[in-house]
Amino acid sequence: MDFLYLDPVFQVLICTRCQYAIVPGTVAAHLRALHKNEVSKAEIKTCAEFWKDQPIQPAKAVQQLELPTDTPPIPNLALLHNGILCRLCTRQPFICSGKTSSYMQKHLKAVHAWTSGCKGGRPPKASVAKETGFAAVTVSPVSYQTFHHSNFNRFFQVTPPPSLPPLPTATTLEAQVELQLAQKLQAATATASSVLQPPAEPSLWLQTTEWVRYLQGYNLPAAAELIALPHPSQPEPDLEALLESFSCVIEQARNSILQGKVNAFDQQRINNFLRTGSRTSKASDRPLAYKLKENTYTKYKGTWKQLLCFVYRMVYQGQQPALHCLLTTVQSAALDQVVQAASAYVQQREAPMLQSALDLACLCFCISLLDQRLMGDIYDSVVVGFLAVLGLTKNKKAFKMHLPLPLTFLLLSRLLSSSFSNGQ
Fold first, then answer.
1. If you ran DSSP here, which 8-state letter would residue 125 be given?
2. pLDDT at 127
3. Which of 67, 286, 316, 413 is the most buried (most CB within 10 A)?
4. How many CA atoms lie less than 13 Å away from 94 in the CB half-sphere?
5. How far apart, in Å, are the Cα atoms of 402 and each of 209, 220, 221, 229, 234?
6. pLDDT for residue 189 is more than 70
7. How many whole angstroms separate alpha carbon 218 and alpha carbon 221?
8. DSSP 312
């Protein structure tokens, strides 16, 4: 396999596509799970037999390696730059992603008995805050990598070479002018990602959605990252547990209908819950349409999962850019509950009760996102804001003029409602 690389220094087998090392003995499982469309069964068997006898370091031994902080990035491994490092660790400093600062707080409390000194009420003295504050016991951002994922995941700090040389000092008038032009060019390049390209012709669609007004001036690539599904190279355990729970909730709703727990009369009632007392929609006179192809459900669930990523990262974790939204009291409470349930489930996955609690919290949270009356700014709704970000094109400088999403939310919202009607 041309994408499997044996690092000669650390003796680890790296998948250059996934950008992390494969645990010895799991080559076949890795290829079947993530690359089954690229390699045949015979090739997987041959590859597993070949690497079985190669000198590959055990994952547990690699996990315990102590690398100096000035270690350059290891080729073919994912390189991240938003890490948080614990200052209190003397050996193998603990590092976590900047997206999961709560994990650093848990580490500080569990390993170092750390307290922030801020317990509410009157603010602490400046000296106390300086000595015990979160910023005083951590370093961020730091660049970091990991060899393995899952049970052998451990981040270590690396020091990448400087990407751009500093601009030279100007000595003559001509050099000063050129320096100023170069500085303006750099500034323009840095802010180009926040400028939306206006359409060639006036667009009634954009006038109605007000997407330009909502996103103008923000870092658009960063906004797009808010809705990106978690990547294997950058684990987000709590968020991944939430997304898995959402898939379970949708499947439970479908099975309830297939098993007859939600009969045809209830299906019709669910299908017209948005148009109670109205005869303007023929669709409301028919039972809920749930017999769709599996690919359709996968696509629809993918869109909803992007919404959950958007709310979790921007609202709960406070990631930038901080786009406008106003969560209701019910939505805020539901968000706290589902995050707590996800965290508890991640720590103890074998407990069935925790899985059930997470599924129920996920269901209530999704319903709460749809249940919001908009009396003023439409972007008070986090769902409407999400649709604006979803409408960005790949280059993050313009919008897609066709976004057939109402059906996605309508169908899945009705499926979620069927779970309520079934008493789940």
1. P
2. 44
3. 413
4. 18
5. 12, 19, 20, 22, 31
6. no
7. 9
8. I
Tokens of 289: 């349409």
* Mean pLDDT, the chain, integer: 77
Enter the pTM of the model.
0.51
- Rounded distance, CA 84 to CA 241, Å? 22
Mean pLDDT of 250-257: 75
User: What confidence category does residue 128 fall into, taking pLDDT thresholds of 50, 70 and 90?
Assistant: very low
Q: What is the Rg, in whole angstroms, of the alpha carbon atoms belonging to the chain?
A: 25
Asked if 170 contacts 119 with a C-beta cutoff of 8 angstroms, the reply is no
Report how far apart, in Å, the C-alpha atoms of 300 and of each of 195, 247, 274, 380, 413 are: 30, 11, 19, 23, 11
Nearest CA to 84 among 68, 58, 106, 62?
Answer: 106
For the stretch 375-393, pLDDT in tens is 778 888 888 888 888 888 7
- CB atoms under 10 Å from CB of 64, counted, come to 10
Query: What are the pLDDT digits (tens) for 329-350?
Result: 888 899 999 999 999 998 887 7
Contact 161, 72 (CB under 8 A): yes
What values do phi and psi take at 325, rounded to 5? -165, 155
> How many CB atoms are located within 10 Å of the residue 409 CB?
17
User: Quick one: pLDDT band at residue 424, thresholds 50, 70, 90?
Assistant: very low
Position 111: which residue type?
A: V
Whether residue 94 contacts residue 156, with contact meaning beta carbons closer than 8 Å, is answered with no
C-alpha of 59 from chain center: 26
Peptide bond before residue 141 is cis, with ω within 30 degrees of 0: yes
Q: What is the pLDDT of residue 183?
A: 61
* DSSP codes, 147-192: S--GGG---EE--PPPSSPPPPPP-SHHHHHHHHHHHHHHHHHHHG
Tens digits of residue pLDDT in 54-67? 889 999 999 888 88
Lookup: tokens for 152: 């052998």
